[in-house]
Amino acid sequence: MEIISRVSERQTEYIRKQQEAKEAAKAREASSAPDAKKPDQAPQDIPAKPERDEYIPENPQASAGIYYPDLDEDGKQKIHFDNPDENASEEAPKTDAPEKDASGKKTERCSGNTDKVDREIENLKKQQKELEQKIHREKDESKVQELKSKLAQVERELRQKDNDAYRRQHTVFTQL
């Protein structure tokens, strides 16, 4: 018994129909085409050159403006824009009023002072040195233990206060 697959029958049938259609198209072309070919006609078998993008130069356009980084009065970076359409005569005169930023809020000038925090830290360091010296001089063990506990407390407080986060939190700001 011979096994026949329907898939292979369909595939071969489709291929056979395609080949017959091509042969029929060639036969029609051969019968309708004259024997002598015209020289201005390109052969159909040779593909034409592929089309490519072409550069077309244009007249240069006027600049829309220039953005550039610059430093403001406080030394912070700002982006400035030079608009070529603006005339120098149209610029508004500056006043002593507080400036407004992009969100419309008035900007204020302030200065920060960390002197109080610095004094606290210096005092804690002095206490630490004094306690260390007292521990080295003291001969009574009970007093040495008491001094060591005080020293540990001062070191913990110093560790807590001698950092940038504590300085930022306890900075005193004054408006200029």
Series of secondary-structure elements, N-terminal to C-terminal: HEEEHHHE
Parts with pLDDT < 50 across at least 5 consecutive residues? none
Q: How many helices?
A: 4
Let me know the number of strands.
4
Structural class: alpha+beta
Biggest sheet architecture? 2 strands, antiparallel
- Quaternary assembly: single chain
User: Per the principal axes of the C-alpha atoms, what is the gross shape?
Assistant: elongated
Q: Give the terminus-to-terminus CA distance.
A: 106 Å
Range of helix content: 40-55%
- The side-by-side strand order for the widest beta sheet comes to 1-2
Radius of gyration from the alpha-carbon trace, in angstroms: 46 Å
Proportion of strand residues: 5-15%
**Mean pLDDT, all residues:** 79
Please describe what this structure looks like:
The chain is an alpha+beta fold. It has four helices and four strands. The protein has helices at residues 6-32, 115-137, 141-161, 164-169; strands at 66-71, 77-82, 110-113, 172-175. Strands 1-2 form a two-stranded antiparallel sheet. α2 (115-137) packs antiparallel against α3 (141-161). The model has no long low-confidence stretch (mean pLDDT 79).
